[in-house]
Amino acid sequence: MALTVTLVSAEEEVWHGEASLVVAKTVEGEIGFMTGHEPVLAILAEGQVRITETSGTKVIVLAQDGFLSMEGDELTIVAGHATLES
Q1: For a FRET experiment, which of 24, 30, 32, 54 has its CA 20 to 30 Å from that of 78?
Q2: Which GO terms describe its molecular function (predicted)?
Q3: How many degrees, rounded to 5, is the angle at CA 82 between CA 76 and CA 84?
Q4: What are phi and psi of 15, to 5 degrees?
């Protein structure tokens, strides 16, 4: 089972797909998400969102301002600004 991840900025959808692990920076520190994670709503801090696709490919997005929400195995990250780095 994989996480369904959607990462959007104010301008566009930056990344959408399935991932085995996502690590994001919140105002309270870094948090990692895998399938089965408890529901979370957190304020996004400026920094990297590191996504490991189910294939093992690493994706890095620089994000700032916004929030993230984890419900079931769906993670949604809404950033004021986000740039795909790799």
Answers
A1: 54
A2: proton-transporting ATP synthase activity, rotational mechanism
A3: 100
A4: -155, 140
Would the pLDDT of 79 be above 80?
yes
Contact 50, 23 (CB under 8 A): yes
11, 12, 21, 53 from 31: Cα distances, Å: 25, 24, 10, 17
Q: Measuring CA to CA, which residue among 84, 82, 18, 4 is closest to residue 46?
A: 82
Q: What is the mean pLDDT of residues 13-28?
A: 97
pLDDT score recorded for residue 1: 83
Q: Does the structural domain 3-84 have CATH classification 2.60.15.10?
A: yes
CA pair distance 79, 44, nearest whole angstrom: 7
Question: Residue 1, exposed/middle/buried by CB under 10 A (0-12, 13-18, 19+)?
Answer: exposed
